[in-house]
Amino acid sequence: MPLWNHRRDALQTASVLELTICCKMMDLSQIEKISKALADQTRLMIFEAISCQKHMNCSQIVSLQGVTPATVSHHLKILVEAGLAESHREGQFVYNKAVPGKIEEYTRALTSIARGKRTAKQR
Fold first, then answer.
1. H or E element: which one contains 72?
2. What CA–CA distances, in Å, run from 59 to 26, 32, 49, 65, 71?
3. Rounded mean pLDDT of 40-63?
4. Is the whole model's pTM more than 0.85, yes or no?
């Protein structure tokens, strides 16, 4: 097969991939929710802490961050609602972990806005 056929096939594959990514783009209300969740310094610190571990329970986060259990619980609730964290119960403990795929999706959406492929006014 000639070289230009390989390039054409590669371009077609790239276009299909880009279309697939755009179709999976998160809506702007989700972008706003994640932006607001990460805008708080304490939540950002909590997100960073749970991102570095397989999972953490509330008391482990309290010991690292120096905030009350009620505050950690409140901030974790917001992170879970934004899709940035997941919680699961094991016995008497509730463990939290980060959702890296959501941050990757968020980054792609912001990149798309920054490149002008999508406007922030779309809903």
1. helix 69-81
2. 32, 29, 12, 10, 11
3. 94
4. no
